[in-house]
From TrEMBL:
The Glycine transporter domain, residue ranges: 6-80, 131-204
Record protein name field: Membrane protein YeiH
Residues that span the membrane, as ranges: 6-23, 30-47, 59-80, 128-150, 156-173, 185-203, 209-229
Species name: Hathewaya limosa (Clostridium limosum)
Keywords from the UniProt entry: Cell membrane, Membrane, Transmembrane, Transmembrane helix
InterPro entries, alphabetized: Gly_transporter
Highest taxon above the source species: Bacteria
Topology versus the membrane: Multi-pass membrane protein
Main location class: membrane
Pfam families found in the cross-reference section: Gly_transporter
Length: 248
């Protein structure tokens, strides 16, 4: 299916961008950045194929996705710094207008400007990482749900789980390698967005709707749910040991 290939390529590029930018944020070298880009892009698919018994995994049988990840990661490594330098920068006039100089009484205007511009670049970097990660999550949720459905059509749990594993597996590996808590465990609504998308895909296919409708609906619901959660900072409840004075 052409649509499936398109979704796989889009997801691969999006996750490779996400992984590469995280590597750059952690100040890794070119190999580290490229490795994170690859593992983020194909990690979820490898998990899915192993669980479904499709061995060796597609990422090794058809290395096209690894090559796409490598090209994307290297491109980001060299292009992103140039793009970041063109990002809107604050000037002395902006500092006076924003009256931020009072917050840094022991700093000169030039020091304040450098600090503000660096903070803005970091905010932009994090935003790009989260958006590209959301695109990858949505596309691979649809891809994983589709492959699971054609393996066991009547199993809703399997379809949803494979969509989830495909969508979040690469991100978990990425964050684990750089010693961060994976996004799925700490950031807004993440896994829930993938689950919503997987359920919508299953419902569409069970009711014999066109596969294009199933793909687009799954992608849209997953992506929109994730973006709304990011925008509104929606989170599942977290346990606060300090609140109850419990030492864990």
């Amino acid at each position: 299916m052409l649509l499936l290939k398109v979704f796989e390529i889009i997801g691969t590029i999006a996750f490779a961008i996400s992984g590469a930018l995280v590597g750059m944020q952690k100040k890794l070298d070119l190999f580290g950045v490229t490795f994170l880009g690859i593992i983020t892009a194909v990690g979820g698919g490898i998990f899915r194929d192993i669980i479904l018994g499709n061995t060796p995994p597609t990422a090794f049988v058809k290395p096209n996705y690894c090559f796409i990840s490598i090209i994307t990661s290297i491109s980001i490594f060299y292009l992103y710094p140039r793009i970041a330098r063109k990002h809107k920068k604050y000037t002395n006039k902006n500092v006076d207008q924003l009256e931020v100089i009072n917050k840094y009484t022991n700093m000169t205007k030039d020091q304040v400007l450098r600090l503000i511009n660096k903070q803005n670049q970091m905010i932009t970097l994090k935003r790009i990482i989260l958006i590209s990660d959301a695109i990858g999550l949505a596309t691979f949720t649809a891809v994983g749900s589709n492959l699971a459905f054609y393996n066991v059509k009547s199993n809703l749990f399997l379809v949803v789980c494979m969509g989830l594993v495909t969508g979040v597996g690469g991100g978990i590996l990425r964050d684990t390698f750089v010693q961060d808590t994976p996004l799925i465990f700490r950031k807004e609504i993440y896994a829930v967005a993938s689950i919503i998308g997987g359920i919508s895909f299953y419902v569409c296919k069970v009711n014999k709707l066109n596969y294009m409708i199933a793909f687009y609906l799954c992608f849209t619901l997953t992506f929109v749910s994730r973006m709304i959660a990011m925008k509104l900072n929606l989170n599942l409840p977290k346990f606060n040991s300090d609140k109850y004075k419990i030492r864990l």
